[in-house]
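Quick start: read one record
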Amino acid sequence: MTTQPHPGIIKAPGQIKNLVPPRPLRPTVKMSQTRLLDLVKTQCRIFSMNFNPQRLRLGNKVLRQRLRGPALAAWYPKKTVAFQDLQNTYKPLGLTTFDEAEDDREEAIQMSVTNILHAVWQYVDTFLLSSAKLRGKGRPKKKRTAAGKVVPDIGFRRRSRTPD
């Protein structure tokens, strides 16, 4: 039996062919689908992995990660006794406490809210008046007498339809 050289091998010095290495031989035996699933299931059990033949997104990647709770809790300092703890302790006894810092904070909030509302209303009022005047829709000037005195404004007067 004579062996034929692989087509990628040079036969003679003048003949250079495509130098591609030969493919390795593969087994031609095909395994059944159920047998492959059993093999994968056994692999998952041995290596403690999740068996997921439908390839669903189960979130295992996230669940395998280390928990972040202890690291976040260690970041903040331990809680010390606060003034509010004393207030809560003495409240059932009927004793009242006064927290000056809290009182100042609430007062500042109330003042800032009042100031903000006042400034907003003042701005809106000024804006509306000036825009009406610019468009010629403002209130008319007060009527002056011959002596230069201002006549008190009574309200709108209707014109009579009869000619004078």
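The longest helix spans residues 100-134.
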